[in-house]
Amino acid sequence: MILDEPTNFLDLLGVVWLENYLKQMRNTSRTTMVLVSHDRDFVNAVCEEIAILRDQKLSYFKGNLSAYEKDLEEQKLYLGRMKEAQERQKAHMEATIRETMKVGKKTNDDNKLRMAKSRQKRIEDRTGLQVSANGGRFKLSRDRGGWHSSARAEIEVPTDEKGVLIVLPDATELRFPGPLISLEGIVFRYKQNDAPVLNGIDLVMHMGDRVGIMGLNGCGKSTLVRLLTGNMLSSKGKISNHSRLKLGYYAQHSVEDLQNEGQADQNLTALSLMLKEVEGKLNEGEIRGLLASLGLQGKVVSDVPIFRLSGGQLVRLSLAKIIWNSPHLLVLDEITTHLDFHTVTSLASALSTFNGAILLISHDRFLVRSVIEGKRDEEHILGDEFEGADGEEKEIQNRRRTVYVLKSGKLHEQQEGVEQFEQSLVKRVRKMMPTLG
């Protein structure tokens, strides 16, 4: 069974059901599964081995994604120390050889010259890995068979497998305080006599707030976002904005909209699109700088038509469209759909440092935990640039961090965050799960 991004359009109930179904299949059948996914929690729960495609080569690891990342960090530390120690030893031996050669030539001492050549040969023979692949002592005849340019393999310290580096601009100064946006008693019906999709929604957001909204497909999350961003009108209630509010909205179908725009005008590039978007408020150099801060640069920006860009590149272009004017509030509706998990990690770190407010709608448990709850998961490695709830700055520590579930038209605060919602779904899934034969 081959599954390529099976969780992309599932809500969390669907993800948890599929997760448990595949785990049950893994444990009770002989079916082999190959899974491609950017969902860290999903991969960790289902997979027992990881295949890593890197530098056009496949390597394999026995264990899940978290175990692989932990092992990679340990290998970096171990091999890094080995390489540093060996380089110090090599530098000392080379200095001794140079001095011996100098004395030998000056005194015409053949013994010293032979000694220097012998030591040089010893450096060449002993430079490289000191252990075998199994962790035992290196043995040339066993561990380095065939023709090679050196007796031992070079010590290669693993490098970080990072996605595209993402840097977000700080929000524009607000000048005077107050809520960025306020929703009071919001009710929404598609038709006058229909049951309300939203019924009594109250939500206030200030600078620095982190609010996550989760829920099942069709519960009204995107409808709420369209109301909040002014793209729809409520049936009842009041929505108020700060008079200086700049809002950046990443819609759920942003990538598809760009693809359609690119197909309509096949000469349209990221650069030409942004030049139209900013209407002269940024020059070409500033736009290139903005796109480069999102990992889009060089010919990709100016020569490659939008319709040829990958899904991940289109996500980053969509981000450029909403952050170029340094908004106070970012509203992000399912932004991870087309991103690989390294870039999701990079995005989480970038959002963690944003000084404005964030409203995040997502089924991605890792993203909600890291960006909204500010948690640095033990199972998922985040870089030093990540600013979580445990940060040193009081401004970050004191941020309002709230996860809601939208259900039956109302927002329900999850005191325990994502985990509370997930556990409620696990109970439902256990009741509906089939038993595999």
UniProtKB/TrEMBL annotation:
CDD domains: ABCF_EF-3. Keywords: ATP-binding, Nucleotide-binding, Repeat. The keyword Nucleotide-binding applies. One of its GO terms (molecular function) is ATP hydrolysis activity. Residues 181-433 form the ABC transporter domain. GO terms for cellular component: membrane. SMART domains: AAA. It is a multi-pass membrane protein. It is found in: Membrane. Its main location: membrane. This is ABC transporter domain-containing protein.
